[in-house]
Amino acid sequence: MRTPTLALIAIVSCKPDPGDQTLDDTGGAGPVDPSELTEIPPTLGISETAAVDCADPYIPPEELTGEDGLGYHGWDWEDLEFKLRWSVSNRFDNNWISLNTGVYDSVRVMPQLVPEAGGCLKDAVTTGLSRSAPLAGALDGFSAYAHGDETYLELQHDRYVAPTYAPESEDTALYQALAGLHGLDNPDPDAPSAGDWDPEAIWAVTQAWSPSAQTALADLVWAIGEAALLEEEALANMDPDAARRLHDAYLDERYTGSSTIFLSPYNGDVIDDTIDHADDLALRAYVRAGLRLAEATEAARLALVAETPHDQGELDLATPWGRVVLSAADRDDVRTATDMDGVALLVDVAGDDVYDGQYAATPHFWMAAGVVLDLEGDDVYGADTPDIESEDTRASDALDVDYGFTQGAGLFGAGVLVDGGGDDLYMASVWAQGTGAFGVGLLADHGGADDYRLGLAGQGQGQFGVGLLADTDGDDRYGVYTYGQGVGRPGGAGLLLDSDGDDVYIAYYQALDPWLPEPGFPNHFGLTTSSMPYNDGENAHYMSIAQGTGWGYRGDWFDDYTNWMGGLGALIDLGEGNDEHYADNMSMGQGFIYGMGFLYDGGGDDLYRTFWWGPAASAHMGVGLFWEEGGDDDIHVTWASGGFGYDCSVAWMLDHGGDDVYSGQFHYGRAYTYGLTFMINEGGDDEYNAEVDRQRTDPYFGTVIGGASTNLLGAFLDLGGGEDTYRTSVDSVGNDAVWYHAPSGDDVDPELHKGIGIDR
């Protein structure tokens, strides 16, 4: 590892000599002797929680609960609570959408709360969210959903109130903060040594910044130290050897096997270590570290916007918690993997910069935090990463860990990357671009037409951790192979938050016209699909697990008979742009093994293309929610789903306006084998089962297939008028009509299993 003692570019003669500086606010006359300034070490602030207030809960339309809906069958919401048990043991529970009593140790989903919870999440992450500070605002709200041990009605925001520091003056704050972090002991035996401390030289470099910039940078340096102290709290009850083994397992894993679909890493003793020790992690402490770092980084960005870039001073200081690199140079920098190794904080104010390696991350176990703040320029992150969109790139290259764990990756720590603007390119292999594993990973981009490309596990993804990607403005393009764009895996939460623009979201798939029409984004990795049953008889299809998916681990498929409950995954696009979504299997508001997946779009004429299990699909105790605010949308599902609850799961599909077109083998409010499904479209002249080549089925609208000894429902509602078109030969389905379909399949009971269809 590169561990410099001290690298400094001296101040040029046009700057005052440090001996001429005075401490104006102390009233002292004469020169400052920096060697006599007291170091100010970081201390812990106050950790607290605040109740989540869902001010405008979702109220289902009267038609669903009234005399034509549940009332027709003599039911109300209490009749739709699951009362089934799963015989397989469950670990790492998810209580987000649950009965507060917890009577049933398996399914506890309250179906009427699913859209309310989604609306609450959307409001929570956007309340107080500004274009100037998307990361801190989003994480503040999202933290409420980062802990599976709270029921929905008990959700709380995490809060962390920073301590008050008292430097001698604005001109000394940065110097004293650096001295404090430099002197903060790191107990890890592999931690680097602190570099030499040259008071005069370091003082000179700090004085290259304006007083306001010094104050903000000082606070960011202290936040790095506070993250170190919060990490001690996070790991206080966790076996240190197990934590180190788990950390190393993530970095040692080969991510090219089919086992990575269900769990990664999978090698060695990682499953036993996770089962035995994952519950011992105090994730809240890492969340609070992420909150503190996000707020401090955003504050520093705002303070530095007014800075005039110059070549008058640069710092590269080794501390026991990583290097601190401050660059005020107005130039295009090329930083190699060696340059970025072990960097706890890097600030770059200008230039079209190039970054390689592992940065804004915690790839070393001794690191508590890694932060990169780049203020402006058209930057390239991961320039040496093999292009995952090239036909010549194979899995061994595209998923090579050497190009991963970067760009906002928290692995037993907190990783934060904030880019102030420009048309940026982000490329990485695995675990990057807002990803957390036993930690918190955050990425915020403040504008421009950005391009994100990733192999696996990122773009807002968490597994026993929290991952967040927030992008404010611009027409952006997001591409991931699997586990990305808002995915919560066991014990985790992931969010992709985009505030504006005509955006494209791609989970690379095997293109197949016209079921997955152009533009096609085929998967070139050549991964095995032998264990995946999802295909069309001719072409292999892949597990996208993307775009708002909660994903659990089903251990009985691997003979260890332990299920890990999925987390919360959300993709929230607040803008009214015309967005495009492409995926293969498992995507777009999809929940699997107790996971909750949520996709929200704020409007615009949007395009959705997927093969199977999405949008608004759920399986094996999962929860899926797809919420379109309006616009003329075009939604095509090749094989099956689109409002599809299966095996003790709940699925909601909501569209609040526009002339929409639905095509493919689309399931319109269809519950299958112990599922509950609700599809509600409001307003517009809508077209269902649009004519396309290879139309596969004659669809039903509101029905139940298969059954169990519990009340099950498949509901389809088109409300708000309009001249709707239904292409089906099923009797009674049509515009301005009401119908009730009898259940079909095995083990059905007409008294328990109901279908409802309403067009008004």
Structure description:
This protein is of the alpha/beta class and 760 residues long. It has 3 domains: 6-32 and 163-320, no CATH class; 48-160, no CATH class; 503-760. The protein is 16% helix and 29% strand. The chain has 11 helices and 47 strands. It has a 17-stranded mixed sheet, with helices on one face. It has a 13-stranded parallel sheet with strand order 7-9-11-14-17-20-23-29-33-36-39-42-45. α3 packs antiparallel against α9 (283-304). The longest helix is centred in the N-terminal third of the chain and has 24 residues, at 211-234. The radius of gyration is 27 Å and the shape is elongated. The model is unreliable at 1-30, 512-520 and 526-531 (pLDDT under 50).
Summarize the structure.
This protein is of the alpha/beta class and 760 residues long.
Layout of helices and strands, plus pairs?
Layout (H helix, E strand, L loop, with lengths): L5 E4 L36 E6 L10 H4 L23 E3 L22 H13 L7 H9 L13 E6 L8 H13 L16 H8 L4 H24 L5 H13 L17 H8 L5 H22 L9 E6 L2 E6 L6 E2 L1 H4 L2 E6 L5 E2 L13 E6 L5 E2 L13 H4 L10 E3 L2 E6 L5 E8 L2 E3 L2 E6 L5 E8 L2 E3 L2 E6 L5 E8 L2 E2 L4 E6 L5 E4 L35 E4 L2 E3 L1 E2 L7 E3 L3 E6 L6 E3 L2 E3 L2 E3 L3 E6 L5 E6 L4 E3 L3 E6 L5 E7 L3 E3 L3 E6 L5 E4 L3 E5 L3 E7 L4 E4 L10 E5 L6 E8 L5 E2 L11 E2 L13 E7 L1
Parallel strand pairs: 3-27, 6-8, 7-9, 8-10, 9-11, 10-13, 11-14, 12-15, 13-16, 14-17, 15-18, 16-19, 17-20, 18-21, 19-22, 20-23, 21-25, 22-28, 23-29, 24-30, 25-31, 28-32, 29-33, 31-34, 32-35, 33-36, 34-37, 35-38, 36-39, 37-40, 38-41, 39-42, 40-43, 41-44, 42-45, 44-47
Antiparallel strand pairs: 1-5, 2-4, 5-6, 26-27, 46-47
Helix pairs in contact: 2-3, 3-9, 4-6, 6-9, 7-8
